[in-house]
Design brief:
Blueprint: E1 15-23, E2 31-36, E3 50-51, E4 53-57, E5 60-70, E6 74-82, E7 88-91, E8 97-100, E9 110-114, H1 128-134, E10 159-167, E11 176-179, E12 195-196, E13 198-201, E14 204-212, E15 218-220, E16 222-225, E17 231-233, E18 239-241, E19 251-258, E20 266-270, H2 290-300, E21 304-306, H3 349-362, H4 369-392, H5 395-421, H6 437-443, H7 451-477, E22 481-486, H8 495-499, E23 504-505, E24 508-512, E25 522-523, E26 528-529, H9 531-534, H10 540-549, E27 555-558, E28 567-571, E29 581-583, E30 588-589, H11 590-595, H12 601-605, E31 609-610, H13 611-618, H14 622-629, E32 630-634, E33 637-640, H15 647-657, H16 667-678, E34 683-685, E35 692-695, H17 703-706, H18 710-725, H19 729-744, E36 750-753, H20 763-770, E37 774-777, E38 798-801, H21 810-816, H22 818-829, H23 841-852, E39 858-862, H24 863-867, H25 901-906, H26 908-921, H27 929-939, H28 950-963, H29 967-973
Parallel strand pairs: 1-9, 9-19, 10-19, 20-21, 20-39, 21-22, 22-27, 27-36, 37-38, 38-39
Antiparallel strand pairs: 1-5, 2-3, 2-6, 4-5, 6-7, 6-8, 10-14, 11-12, 11-16, 13-14, 15-18, 16-17, 23-26, 24-25, 24-28, 28-29, 30-35, 31-33, 32-33, 34-35
Length: 974
Amino acid sequence: MVNLGLISGNKGTKSVGLSFRIPYNTQWGQSLVVCGSESVLGSWNVKRGLALSPQHQGDELIWRGSTAVPAGFKCEYSYYVVDDDRNVLRWEAGKKRKLVLPDGLRDGEVVELHDLWQTSSDGLPCTSAFRNVIFRKTWSTEIQRPLGVIQTKLDENGSVVVQFRICCPNIEEETSIYVIGSSTRLGQWKVQDGLKLYYAGDSIWQADCVVQKDDFPIKYPWSKYGKAGNFCPETGPNRELVELSEPQPRSIILSDGMMREMPWRGAGVAVPMFSIRSEADLGVGEFLDLKILVDWAVESGFHLVQLLPINDTSVHGMWWDSYPYSSLSVFALHPLYLRVQALSERIPEEIKEEIQRAKELLDGKDVDYEATMATKLSIAKKIFVLEKDTILNSDSFSNFFTENEGWLKPYAAFCFLRDFFETSDHSQWGRFTCYSIDKLEKLVSKDSVQYDIICFHYYIQFHLHLQLAEAAEYARKKGVVLKGDLPIGVDRNSVDTWVDPNLFRMNTSTGAPPDYFDKNGQNWGFPTYNWEEMSKDNYAWWRARLTQMAKYFTAYRIDHILGFFRIWELPEHAMTGLVGKFRPSIPLSQEELEREGIWDFNRLSRPYIRHGFLQEKFGAYWTVIASNFMNEYEQQRYEFKEDCNTEKKIASKLKSCSESFFFFENEDKIRRNLFDLLQNIVLIRDPEDAGKFYPRFNLEDTSSFKDLDDHSKNVLKRLYYDYYFHRQESLWRQNALKTLPALLNSSDMLACGEDLGLIPSCVHPVMQELGLIGLRIQRMPSEPGLDFGIPSQYPYMTVCAPSCHDCSTLRAWWEEDEERRCQFYKTVVGSDSLPPSQCVPEIAYFILRQHVEAPSMWAIFPLQDLLAVKEEYTTRPAAEETINDPTNPKHYWRFRVHVTLESLMKDKELKSTIKDLIRGSGRSYPPTLGEIEVQAGREKGVATAAPTKQQVTAGLEKISLLNGSSKTEAVAVL
């Protein structure tokens, strides 16, 4: 910000009093400090900020503090909660407050600031999703009076100038904001005599008035007054300006935070970029297809389109790269989503014919990842040769290159080296293994023989940028939020680990402990982050990622937000996700265990393999397995040989000698059984400190645990539950409050967190404190003791959805689990009858309706679940609609919607069904052109029919016929 330093002057400079007042309930040992940009408020050093003192006022705790400042004082400031040593425990969310003292103050006069603590949720309407999209104004709002400038002068003794100030981002054209209250100057509750506010910028409205001392206390609400004469007061109780403090202030700046309105609720559609099908695409969804999807979203009543990650994942050069969460680069866009027809307006006929042939060949049921990538890059190279000079010398490319060269050069060089060495494993690149600026500049030099290859990668990224930016701007103008996805990890062999290896723990792997998705946990293969190193430059790598995302998206999903509290860390040699530990975490020390009577650490931390276990798992052929994989170190006690004492070594040895075992077991079963033996431990010894241990997840399920004495079992069970559910909470909270704010402050996008899985108790309070929106999936309830989530009880700060990309779709889930289906039908639908074996449209409609009526800020539906409300879209086997199988680390991400976007645009019945569903729920929806015309007709006095609930009633009747219950019973459930 521009330096708003203290106004220095002569010795006679006037001094005025500045008094702060804010209500805030603290806990014992906590206090409030106001800290700001000027030295009198600590120059942003909280330890030197102005300490406030508490006073009880009724049920409220009011914090006050005063200081002297020169006349004309300006600054920015915020409030902080600190402990007795001035360590920051909590801080205000949102933008820094701005203060401009009024002109004309006399020496010794006091200006009192009445503030309210800014919560993170208060700032949500100011994110780009709301400010630039949902509440976007098509008319200009000129600043009528600058923020903070008080223009009214005192005209009587005993009076005070009060500047009323409110934030209201959501306001329609030609709507005014008023304060109406008990004071004469506020109209004495008469609307026509209230105080009209003026726009001051940044969604702030303010007005000044002179209030008599006898008028205090003043009660008032804020209100909107529309051009049609409609008057709308804010929700909740009246606000109150209490009696004047002593000495009486000359001016009061009354900042009332956010205008209280009914919480905004919207709906969205989720579909992976690769799953979209259009008449123009080349075997896969493309960025420009988003424009048609946005049109369909608007006409169906949706305010949001959610995608999976769209970064380049071209690590292996094969279908494994279909996994969208394994980034080759966290900055580069995926060439898969390029529309080659849009690369040039002068494509030769022979190339156009090639494109047409490719369209016909690639128009399959699923994405053919390898063929599609090869075809697109081949065609793009031919067009590049024809127009490279024109594009690379253009001003638009020059601007793009200048803005992005920090990541673009390393990315292009990496792609060249990957293809040259035929591997992305940069440890195999000889002298290029270690990245340096000098080596990079030589690689991308205009004089290098590979310069054209380097430029081709620039060219592809430039056009991907243009196409995605075009789609993003189209969505913004249509009032649709484009929501991206921020993967928790990067591929081990990526541009990022090559350029900044110090930011990663390359000898480890990231995953998730056993949960709903996989009883053996998950191993994603990403290296974990070196947070200590990242903190040294205030998480610049993360901030750059978010800045790049914000060029295209106005909202984003933080993948596996638990990873910012703690990550499930596995050794690099692990293949499964079971035997890991949390990082950071407080381990069990050897001394701690010895105090509890636990001392045989080798017995507890090495695989516990007895003769009987081998016989049980491998039957008559156990001796073959034992001779190949085991050493007998005690009588009937075994250990793995050195060449197979890790999961990766076992898999490698099995592959090399699998023919030896073909006669009694398949390779997968042998591997699973050997892994079970390797994982049969109770404690995991820290590889970096032999005196530290971590309890193995679900240790009670192991035979190693079951063979222990009762004392050891009781001690280890107690330590296990302490480690996983109590011991780490404060540490994990502190970790999240270091890392997450760096992300959130890097952009003004709306942030949502994927908080599924084993949730520590500190997670939801921190998310609430930081204004992060959580996720609720009905069949995966986060509330203990529930089989299914109850959408009507979800918190407002959530996204609710019937399914997501990491689980089966609504239809597939209904068909695959009969027991759960019957349970859902009984407890949620409210019927004791047998449910239909398939998720008929009426069932899908019932479940969708539950979600749109939930209090959640967003109800976001996978496109497959939306199509399930119409029978003609349910002919494809439900299992084929699932996007990901989390239990399979080599899952092929290739699902394509079987209907084109153009066909969906023509399906008026489907759009009407969905829109009526959203309209009936009270959720906001973007108006279509037709509705704008209808609204204009209403304003001219033309009568229009109100929407009915006939479709809901018809759906209930069909459900009652299906399950044999009465219509009354079905209605009672809803």
